[in-house]
Structures are given as C-alpha cells and as structure tokens.
Amino acid sequence: MYKKTPLEQWILKKITGSAGETGQLTRTLIENYQLMKLKETIALAAGKSPFYRGASLGRFPLDKFRTLTDLRDLPLTTADDLKQNPLRFLCCSQDEIKRVVTLESSGTTGSPKRLFFTAADQELTKDFFHHGMTVIARPGDKVLILLPGERPGSVGDLFAESVRRMDVLPVPHGIVRDPGYTLEVMEREQVDTLLGIPVQVLALACHEPPGEKKYRIKIKNVVLNTDHVPRAIVNRIKEQWGCRVFNHYAMTEMGLGGGLECEAFSGYHLREADLFFEIINPDTGVALPEGEEGEVVFTTLTRRGMPLIRYRTGDLSRIIPEPCPCGTILKRMAPVRDRVKGRIALAGGGLLSMSTLDEALFAVKGVLNFQAVISSANGADRLAVKVQPAARTVGEIPALIQRALLSIPVIAQNCGKGALILEPVAVDRSPELWRPAKRFIQDWRQKGETEHERVI
C-alpha cells in the first residue's frame, strides 16, 4: 500500500486556498482552474509580450476559449523562437527580473536560450521544491545538493531555501569534481539524501571498489534531477546503496520543475497547478490522446515574467491513462526515454538513439559516463565510443563495452551487413569527472555537426 503523493493536497490548496480533506480534489476542479489560468496567461501574453502579440494571440477570441482543447488552436512555441529574441517574450519590465538563466546551445554554432524569472516566478519554484520534497524527505533529514548553488536564485540555492521550510537541513555542495572528496563530505555531514545529476550520483555510488567500505555513509533517498534518467543508472545506484531513487522531470523552461515520482515509482506526477501539459505528434503538431507517445508540450499557468505558451520540449513521452497505485487523481507522465531529434538513421537501416546506448552501456559495471560519435568512411558508418570508468576497472572495460554494443540489435544487424564499423573503445583514465553537459550522439557524417541531445 503506497502513501498518496502529498502533491495532491498541495495542488488542492493552490487551487482553492485551503488544504481541505483527502479526496476533495477532482479532475473537474483541476481542469476548471487550468482553464481559468490559461485564459489569464493568454491575455497577459497577448497584451504585453511582443512575441505573442505578433503570433496571433492578440486576435484570439478569449470569449470562445471554453475548453482546454481550444488551446490547440494556438501556435506552438519552439526553442528557436526563444533563441532569436528572448526579450520579446517578457511581460514585465526588466527591472522586475531577478534571475536570468542562459542555456548554451549544444551544437558548434547557434545562439543560447535565455530565460527570465521574477521574484514571484522563483517563489513558484521554491514552493514546488518544498512540497515535492515532502514526498521524499522528513524533518531532520540532511540533503546534499549536488547542483550549482553559488549564485542567488540558482537551482541549488532555490532548493536549499525550499527544504529549510520543512525542517530539512540542506548541505550545499555544487557539481562533483572529486568523488572521494564528496564522499568525505557525505560522511562528515552524515547526509542521508542526495539531489543531483544522474551520472554524478552514479560516480559517487560506484567510487569504492566492490567489497570496500571506507566511507561510513547511509543513504536513504536519491533524487535525480533531469529530463531523462536511464533505468540502468537507477538500478546501479539502488544496488550500491540500497536506497530509494526518485526521478524529478525538470527543464529550466518549466521553471526548473515539471513532475516528480511518488513512492510507487510509476511515472511523474505533474505540476498541474502551474503547468498544463499536452502530447503532440512531433511531425504534424496535432494533439494526441492519452496513452499515445509523442512530444511533450507545456504551457505555464502562473508565471508572469516570461510565460510560455505551448512550448515544445523535444522530449518524447506519454500521459499514462491508468490510475497511479498511490491513489492520486493527478495525471502521470511516463519517464522520458528519447528526444524527438535523438534517433538517427544508420546506413544499413534502423535507428540508434542515446537512450538505447544508455541502457546498454550504463549496465556495464564500472562505467561512469561515455561519449558516442557517428562518422562515415568508404560507404559505412563508424561508431566511436569513449568511456570514463570507475577506478580499478579500466583494463576490462573496452571488451565489456564492445560486447554491450553488439547486444543492441540495430548495431549488431548493421555490423553484420558491413554497414557499421565499431571503432576501438577509448578509455579516459583521468581521475576528475567530466563536467556535466548535454549528452548526445554526435553525427559527423554530413557537413556540419548534427548533435542529438540528451541531458542527464
């Protein structure tokens, strides 16, 4: 029997102003609230955002906006729109902006995306972090924050301020550079909960060789903060620490939070009082029914500095139509496994994605991270993989990686046809972890590098 996610009572209070009794939140209540907030957001954007005013929103008749499905009549917003002129999205003066986040392009060229947040927008994030952590932690717990937190308003700083509201002690740390040092901090501070990037937490869990227990630590909970978490990473962390591992679906564009798993670990419970989600056909833009996989699109409901309407995330997922085992009426989204542009065609037929490589290669004990590059020569594709292993596993890693690659059907089939050549596996023996960055298959087969992103 699972405990119902506390996010349900939090959303009830946001909608009605009162926590109420269990069971008082209904889909009708949520959807009426979302419709009201959508109208407010569209009116705000049409009146104050130069971008949306020029995107036909100013001519959209709000009096005919009667159901949530009417939102489908509005145009989609893309990452390229944000890159071209982010200031055109602003609905307030720049004096009201408290935090600007710049997201660099993953490609070799291209403008960065810039996101603007007011103090009120940041409070929405802190409120979600606070109540989201009640799913995971208890008063008196200590949480190590393995995210950037040096600047006021950064994700680590917002998270630290949020958990203090529930009497959880934050231990700010930042990005992991030296796993041994971070493990010493964990031991000294007696932390029992971690919040971090999947590959960084994996490096901590696998730092000690099998059978060694130098560090006296006891981890109860791990929160992996990203858009996609390979199942293989979750399994290895659980195996090493015997802890619960929660996935937090997040993008900066969402205001750093979109959904969080409950104790049933059966999909993300969505932040429905602040965001409205749709799933669309990525090729046609047509909205899809619940249960069908497509591209995740969201609209902000409560953000006032830089609202986003029907923003295309590039993530592939689906809304799960069945009820959650925890008993909530909140919608659930299946874990993101791929990106719309993350599946690349191989010369011998079939598609290869970063998520496929993730599940195969992270299942190899000792692998902490890897990079993949596709090139071509003499009419055949060539796949080069570079791996960062844990200490004392370097010698056997290349053979294990080669075997794991050939366990992937599309790779084995292309190799069998002579259409794909596997380059010798490269191993990075440097003790310092690679800096967190977008992870993607780099496609060098055509002029100009095409990169298929995967943030983990």
Give a structural overview.
The protein has 456 residues and is of the alpha/beta class. The protein folds into three domains: 7-121 and 261-339, Rossmann fold (3-Layer(aba) Sandwich); 136-252, Rossmann fold (3-Layer(aba) Sandwich), CATH 3.40.50.980; 343-452, 2-Layer Sandwich (GMP Synthetase, Chain A, domain 3). Helix content is 27%, strand content 23%. It has twelve helices and 23 strands. The longest helix is centred in the N-terminal third of the chain and has 22 residues, at 27-48.
CATH topology of the largest domain: Rossmann fold
- The CATH class of the largest domain turns out to be Alpha Beta
Helix content class: 25-40%
Give the CATH H-level superfamily of the largest domain: ANL, N-terminal domain
Strand content: 15-25%
How many beta-strand elements?
Answer: 23
Shape: globular
Which secondary-structure class do the elements indicate? Answer: alpha/beta
